[in-house]
């Protein structure tokens, strides 16, 4: 016999909705973990009173009744699993798993039985239907009638809202059967009645969702939010988790209450109640109970008279009444030292808090993602700028959350955190040994810090300090910005004359490249914007005097090493911040000393610039004269070559005038494949054509006639 039985895709019936999850049966008891909310129901083996197996709509179901009257229903079992479950119940729980089928006669009269928190409508010994009284929101009575109203279920497509029972009159004196029926229902129903005085009241608290200022009245079983427009009554049974999160400015605190089912206002559902407190706001609180009642009910967690910060008092009272742990940020620390990251989700900016067992984003809209429901995370480049990146989370259900506009400096810290939590990173792919090490049936709220975890945190801090020390010497990689005027000339532009040199095309395309009109390439190359780009590419003269430093920079260069020695391991950015603080706090007399040094440096710079400008002007005039002289020599050489070419052409034309006459008249568009594409060769061709087309002189014609 196995010590444990596990079932996947089991459905638990809670307030009319079927929540899927995982069920585990062990020697110690029964554990069910809701896949949607992560909530864990733990039933101790000693508390089980009865187990019932029956046929239901989703196959077969298991109904468990406890000794204190609670009922748990789990559906989705196969018929073949009955024997296995029956043997397990006998061996470990010493219970007989009874088989009881529902009555399907279709009769609408019978007997109502109240057992624990369950109303059962029976015909004979067989139940027709059962109603968990915790689903009842209101109970009203008539002459011979009782009406039950139910909480609306947002997850179900169709919800049962009302049931009416006809109660026939009886002959017994002094007992009203209608009133007796209603009292049995109200004693176990989830009906919120604000009877009696509140334990305590917190006035005018700032609430972010739902937005406004609310008075919070604390009652024994529910929380009453009273605002100028709306009222909300929140049973403590609907509170799923509590979070206490410090704001990035270190002056405010968020207190977040997670609700399931959510509170409703029209068609709006609020799954989170977010309160914002100032750390400086204090309060003295007196509970509306005597000291014996406080001690008996809260067992030392609360006292009759308390004082302290407002957020501490609210969180302390809520923790005692709801009986749930308060989740706080873990050992994550961002680039700025805060325990959160500034980012944007959808259209709003907010704060993302990496927790020990998940992520929470506040505040609009609030999002809580547990590690056990994450399929993978992804680090993506920001869509608008290279100074930020996006952090994407995809759940096992296929839902994707994208937190954008995260500063690039936060990348290292966030990546190390995700890596330490062994979450799958999509960019890197699935690595071996990256499977989550936490228990799949563990409650996501259990943030107990054991000695091993504390030791791991200390080691992580030491690694971070060592990383900071090593990063001081190495410069940060930066993305190059796109400056068209400052591009390297290694790769030629399209239509440039030397484009074929840098082209990656094959040899087959080279012939076609040579046959392209060269005139077009020449025009594009000689455009003025291209010249400006080439001129702007020239760097500064290395011989030019350097600009003088400011008083602050002179002081920083003199004291940089001292700051590093006083703060070992300080990063470059933190060093700049620290230096700014020290400079700001420096006295006026000390600053004047550095101001004088800066003024002396400025005078020296102006003097050096005057000398440099005089020298550069004389040098530039010399270079201009040499350029003009060189151009003049080139022009003279060019004229001599052209004259010589024209003479030789004229001599050849006298020998065969008819042939020259036929060859000289060419269309201007005709260019042979072996002719040069340069401007000089075109000019020579035009001169040749002109010489060939001239009529022969009189002397030449006379000699020809001879």
TrEMBL record:
Matches recorded under InterPro entries: HMG_box_dom (IPR009071), HMG_box_dom_sf (IPR036910), PH-like_dom_sf (IPR011993), RTT106/SPT16-like_middle_dom (IPR013719), RTT106/SSRP1_HistChap/FACT (IPR050454), SSRP1-like_PH1 (IPR048993), SSRP1/POB3 (IPR000969), SSRP1/POB3_N (IPR035417)
Feature: compositional bias, Acidic residues: 474-496
Residues in HMG box domain copies: 545-613
Residue ranges with Polar residues bias: 647-661
Domain of life according to the entry: Eukaryota
A Pfam entry, by short name: SSrecog
Region feature (Disordered): 458-552, 609-706
Comp. bias intervals (Low complexity): 497-507, 692-706
Predominant localisation class: nucleus
UniProt feature coiled coil, ranges: none
GO CC field: FACT complex; nucleolus
Keyword Nucleus: yes
Subcellular location: Nucleus, Nucleolus; Nucleus; Chromosome
Keywords: Chromosome, DNA damage, DNA repair, DNA replication, DNA-binding, Nucleus, Transcription, Transcription regulation
Gene Ontology biological process terms from the UniProt entry: DNA repair; DNA replication; regulation of chromatin organization
Gene Ontology MF terms in the entry: DNA binding; histone binding; nucleosome binding
DNA-binding region: 545-613
Sequence intervals crossing the membrane: none
Composition skew (Basic and acidic residues), residue ranges: 532-544, 634-645
Positions with biased composition (Basic residues): 517-531
PROSITE patterns: HMG_BOX_2
SMART domains hit by this protein: HMG, Rtt106
Protein role: Component of the FACT complex, a general chromatin factor that acts to reorganize nucleosomes. The FACT complex is involved in multiple processes that require DNA as a template such as mRNA elongation, DNA replication and DNA repair. During transcription elongation the FACT complex acts as a histone chaperone that both destabilizes and restores nucleosomal structure.
Similarity comment: Belongs to the SSRP1 family.
Identification of the protein by name: FACT complex subunit SSRP1
Source organism of the structure: Haliaeetus albicilla (White-tailed sea-eagle)
Gene: Ssrp1
């Amino acid at each position: 016999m196995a010590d444990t039985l596990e079932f996947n895709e089991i459905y638990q019936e809670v307030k009319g909705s079927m929540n899927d999850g995982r069920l585990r049966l062990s020697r110690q008891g029964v554990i069910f973990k809701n896949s949607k909310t992560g909530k864990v129901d733990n039933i101790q083996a000693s508390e089980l009173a009865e187990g019932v197996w029956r046929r239901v709509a989703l196959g077969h179901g298991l109904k468990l009744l406890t000794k204190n009257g609670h009922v748990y229903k789990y559906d989705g079992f196969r018929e073949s699993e009955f024997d296995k479950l029956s043997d397990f119940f006998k061996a470990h729980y010493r219970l007989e798993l009874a088989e009881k089928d529902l009555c399907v006669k279709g009769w609408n009269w019978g007997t109502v039985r109240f057992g624990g928190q369950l109303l059962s409508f029976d015909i004979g010994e067989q139940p027709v239907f059962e109603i968990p009284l915790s689903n009842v929101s209101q109970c009203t009575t008539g002459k011979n009638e009782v009406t039950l109203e139910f909480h609306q279920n947002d997850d179900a497509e169709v919800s049962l809202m009302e049931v009416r029972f006809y109660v026939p009159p009886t002959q017994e004196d002094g007992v009203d059967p209608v009133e007796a029926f209603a009292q049995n229902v109200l004693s176990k129903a989830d009906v919120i009645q604000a009877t009696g005085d509140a334990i305590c009241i917190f006035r005018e608290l700032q609430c972010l969702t739902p937005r406004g200022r609310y008075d919070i009245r604390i009652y024994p079983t529910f929380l009453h939010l009273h605002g100028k427009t709306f009222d909300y009554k929140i049973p403590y049974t609907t509170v799923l988790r509590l979070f206490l999160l410090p704001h990035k400015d270190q002056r405010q605190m968020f207190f977040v209450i997670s609700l399931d089912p959510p509170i409703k206002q029209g068609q709006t559902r609020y799954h989170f109640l977010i309160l914002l407190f100032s750390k400086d706001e204090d309060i003295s609180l007196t509970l509306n109970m005597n000291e014996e009642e406080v001690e008996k009910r809260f067992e030392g967690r609360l006292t009759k008279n308390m004082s302290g910060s407002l957020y501490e008092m609210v969180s302390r009272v809520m923790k005692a009444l709801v009986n749930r742990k308060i989740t706080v940020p873990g050992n994550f620390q961002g680039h700025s030292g805060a325990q959160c990251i500034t980012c944007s989700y959808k259209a709003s900016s907010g704060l993302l808090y990496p927790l020990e067992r998940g992520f929470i984003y506040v505040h609009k809209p609030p999002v809580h993602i547990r590690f056990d429901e994450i399929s993978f995370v992804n680090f993506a480049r920001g869509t608008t700028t290279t100074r930020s990146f996006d952090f994407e989370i995809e759940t096992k259900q296929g839902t994707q959350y994208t937190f954008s506009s995260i500063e690039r400096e936060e990348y290292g810290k966030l990546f190390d955190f995700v890596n330490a939590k062994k979450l799958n990173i999509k960019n890197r792919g699935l690595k071996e040994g990256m499977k989550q090490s936490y228990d799949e049936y563990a409650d996501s709220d259990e943030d107990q810090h054991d000695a091993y975890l504390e030791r791991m945190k200390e080691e992580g801090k030491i690694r971070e300090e060592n990383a900071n020390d090593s990063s001081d010497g190495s410069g940060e990689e930066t993305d190059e910005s796109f400056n068209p005027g400052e591009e390297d000339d290694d790769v030629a532009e399209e239509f440039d004359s030397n484009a074929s040199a840098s082209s990656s095309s094959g040899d087959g395309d080279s012939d076609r490249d040579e046959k392209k009109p060269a005139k077009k390439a020449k025009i594009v190359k000689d455009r003025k914007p291209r010249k400006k780009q080439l001129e702007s590419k020239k760097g500064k003269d290395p011989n030019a005097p350097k600009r003088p430093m400011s008083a602050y920079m002179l002081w920083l260069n003199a004291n940089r090493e001292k700051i590093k020695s006083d703060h070992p391991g300080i990063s470059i950015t933190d060093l700049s911040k620290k230096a700014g603080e020290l400079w700001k706090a420096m006295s006026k007399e000390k600053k004047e000393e550095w101001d004088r040094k800066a003024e002396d440096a400025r005078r020296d710079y102006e003097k050096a610039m005057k000398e440099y400008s005089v020298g550069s002007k004389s040098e530039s005039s010399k270079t201009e004269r040499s350029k003009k002289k060189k151009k003049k020599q080139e022009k003279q050489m060019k004229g001599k070559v052209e004259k010589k070419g024209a003479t030789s052409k004229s001599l050849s034309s006298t020998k065969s005038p008819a042939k020259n006459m036929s060859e000289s008249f060419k269309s201007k568009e005709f260019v042979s494949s072996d002719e040069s594409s340069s401007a000089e060769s075109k000019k020579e061709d035009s001169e040749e054509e002109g010489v060939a087309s001239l009529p022969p002189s009189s002397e030449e014609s006379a000699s020809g006639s001879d």
